[in-house]
Amino acid sequence: MSQENKSRAMEEFTKGLWKENQIFVTILGMCPSLAVTNSVINGLAMGIATTCVLILSNLLISLCRNIIPNQVRITAFIVIIATLVQVIDFMMAALVPGVHKELGAFIALIVVNCIILGRAESFAAKNPPWLSVLDGAGMGLGFTFALTVIGVIREILGNGSIFNISLFGPKFEPWVIMILPPGGFITLGFLLLGFSWYAQRKINKLQQKEK
Amino acid sequence: MEEDKNTETKPLVQESTGEKEPSSFRLIMTLGVAGFLAGLIMVGTYLYTKPLIEANKAAAIEKAIFKVLPKCTSFKTLELKDEKLSEFDSKNKTAKGEAPKLIYMGFDSSSAMVGFAILGSEIGFADVITILMGYDANKKTIIGYEVLECKETPGLGDKIFKRADFLKNFTSLLTEPEIIFAKHGEKHNPNEVEAITGATISSKAVIRLLNKSMKEWKVPINDFINSTDNKTSEAKK
Description:
The structure holds two protein chains of two kinds.
Chain A: H1 3-15, H2 30-35, H3 40-64, H4 73-95, H5 97-111, H6 114-124, H7 129-159, E1 161-162, E2 165-166, H8 181-210
Antiparallel strand pairs in A: 1-2
Chain B: H1 2-17, H2 24-68, E1 74-81, E2 84-87, E3 101-107, E4 113-123, E5 128-136, E6 141-149, H3 159-162, H4 164-167, E7 173-174, E8 180-182, E9 192-194, H5 200-236
Parallel strand pairs in B: 8-9
Antiparallel strand pairs in B: 1-2, 1-3, 3-4, 4-5, 5-6, 6-7
């Protein structure tokens, strides 16, 4: 692998972690990030499950990219992704029933996560398999990071705990709204506000330097 | 930076798609083959995992039986047929389509009856709640409780199996004349269930479920016990 290839690979992997973070920057995949982040462990589990599917789907789609005609690609991608998720669901129920009992409801949700189709369409369909795997891994980890951050905030405020370990003792009155759907919107709203403020400040600084 | 990259990747797309259009036949074939392969893979996985998943479910129920019937060391599966309980023969699966109505009778180490484990389900706040309850037929009380399936709101409804003081309701709960709802901290009678604050709907669903199952099973269980008692007393004579 040449030096140039290495740096390209590194870039494809790291872009999903922060610069093109699917939740905070491109605001994709809102359904799972609002629905399952009411505790840290839920967010983390959903993130990891999605990352696995994303890596596999990117790999498969990248391998098939030259066979599938452009006109029917989206349909074909959806078939591939849905099959993959369904097979993983069956396999988990059969081989790791404990994990499946906890995650069962989330697995089916992954099909409709637009990040998966988004990466398939905008990256895996145009790039070689190994780059696509790196892209999937980076995007997946960035997604996991975002879900975990939302989960931490919602669990601390909504349940007074983190990883189910009580933080404030029995006197703390949890903000029940934070673990309900509105809490997801509120948390995400404030996080996005923070991110845009940070991004704007960076741009302003650059402009000042130019002057 | 990001815009730079977009322009980098664009020519790639045009190279691969800018050529002549593929025939309709090829498009249909591609999707047909993709659908066929997807179906094949999915059905294959389903057939491969089905027995494993069923075994897992049976194992989960078995584990729960020993949990809801304290002191239980072995159990017998009974089937409800024509309002009567009889021993269930798993090999004798003649009636297809309809799932047999099963109940589990537990025995302690001296093979005396401890009670029955009854499976019940009811619509909760989000989805169906499935519960296995331990029932002491002599005392007409519920002595154990285990939630098998529950998709209630995490942090609220899921307290029906996570909160210790709610679970305490079901260590000795009188089922007669009927199980009644009581607000948190206002339980006075042995047939009352102290609800969870903030999860009233789920608590009420649990009570509905218990009453429904009791209504269905109490008479057959009593008949069954009486008939076996008669048999043993006749045998003694």
